Amino acid sequence: MVFSGLSQAQGQTGSPCGDPFRNHYGPYDYRVTTPQQRAIVENVHFTPAVESLRAGNTSMGPGGDLDYTLNVYPNHHRALMSMMKFAVRERNARPGGVQFSIECRFDRAERFRPDDAMVKVIHGLYLIQTGKPADAITKLEQARELDSNNANVHYNLGLAYFDLKKFDQALESAHVAYAQGFPLPGLRDKLRRAGKWRDPVPVVESASPEVTMPESVEDAVQPDPQAAPAAD
């Protein structure tokens, strides 16, 4: 794959959060690069110590290395998650050593790739953790529109609905998330402790209708003039 940055005109340079389309290297879409391409940045700036917020690698703390990673890959899911955790841990939207606040990082990532559902999931999770469940629902519903088969979307929607005491919606989201294989029991446990958990109603398959044999070969192959065309 040949990397190519996007035009400066796409960057909305008037934003207080800067232009996510301009960087001395990249920027690139995290989702469509290979592990080998990502390793050029990750091996230096997104080491395990940086990701876990234990230390920086080329900077005094993790902030500088997370900044570098997110400048090259504005929608780098794991780096965005680490930056979110950094802000929550420090109780500061712009913790020490970082260039942009976490709100700006979400803004930049969403402007860079509006179709990336996981960016909106991480943003929604941040809003849940900072006590804004109504805003989280708005963001997570945007993610659901992009990827309705994402168990993370439904799980975190359930958490936000639970915080707003909308237990029916929380239960519905939980059922979808667990049906899609989400592994963490936290939402189910919350609903159980609140006395709101119910197991999903099993789907009962109806019995196959009795097959009537045609009286002749012609009856079996005769087309139906009212039949709808097959879907593409």
From TrEMBL:
It comes from the Bacteria. Transmembrane segments: none annotated. Residues 219-232 have a biased composition (Low complexity). Gene3D superfamilies: Tetratricopeptide repeat domain. This is Uncharacterized protein. Residues 1-20, 203-232 are annotated as: Disordered. Residues 1-15 have a biased composition (Polar residues). InterPro entries: TPR-like_helical_dom_sf.
